[in-house]
Amino acid sequence: MTAAIGALTINVLLIEPDGLVRSTVSSVCRELQIVRMHQATSLAMGKQWLQTWKADGLMLSLADPDAALDLLSRLRAREFQCEAGIPVAVMATACDAAMLKRLKELEVRRFLLQPFKLRDVIQTVEQLWPAEEKIVV
Predict the structure, then answer these.
(1) 108, exposed or middle or buried, with CB in 10 Å at 0-12, 13-18, 19+?
(2) Per the confidence metrics, is the pTM higher than 0.85?
(3) pLDDT tens digits for 22-74?
(4) Does residue 10 sit in helix, strand or coil?
(5) How many angstroms from the chain centroid is the CA of residue 13?
(6) In this structure, are residues 35 and 125 in contact, taking their beta carbons and an 8 Å threshold?
(7) What whole-number distance in Å separates Cα of residue 104 and Cα of residue 47?
(8) What is d(CA 53, CA 41) in angstroms, rounded to the nearest whole number?
(9) pLDDT at 16 exceeding the cut of 90
């Protein structure tokens, strides 16, 4: 049997306006002890978090694509407390080639097309922020 070590010391900020998506993702990550998922209901709230807190990663909704890309650009320009190169995953209902190109330029590591399966989110989180495992007897 294995158990995650350090998973709850990995702090990921989830910026998602949809309460159902936000609470489901957060509760599953907490229940499975994958990462400590912090929630922001808006980009403005997410900016406040990032200005005062050092996140290990970011999951970002592209519900408002221009504002979300601006926040991501500011993150990569080292305008927040966290490292500029932290892993970022984005979620959107649609995406074209121009948006994918921009996301690649901003070093987005994962893109989740909504609606997505919960297992896809879990796999994304586990791949971006892996916790060490130890054998528990």
Answers:
(1) buried
(2) yes
(3) 999 999 998 888 899 999 999 999 999 999 999 999 999 999 999 999 999 99
(4) coil
(5) 6
(6) yes
(7) 21
(8) 16
(9) yes
- Residue 135 tokens read as 């054998």
For residue 26, which phi and psi values (nearest 5 degrees)? -65, -45
The answer on pLDDT for 137 being more than 80 is no
Identify the helix (H) or strand (E) that includes residue 48: helix 43-52
Q: Sign of torsion, CA 26 102 47 84?
A: positive
Q: Which two tokens stand for residue 96?
A: 């074209």
pLDDT band at 131 (very low <50, low <70, confident <90, very high): low
Long-range contacts of 49-55 (CB under 8 A, 24+ apart): 49/13, 50/13, 50/75, 50/80, 50/81, 50/82, 51/80, 51/81, 52/81, 53/11, 53/13, 53/81, 53/82, 54/11, 54/81, 54/82, 54/83, 55/11, 55/12, 55/13, 55/81, 55/82, 55/86
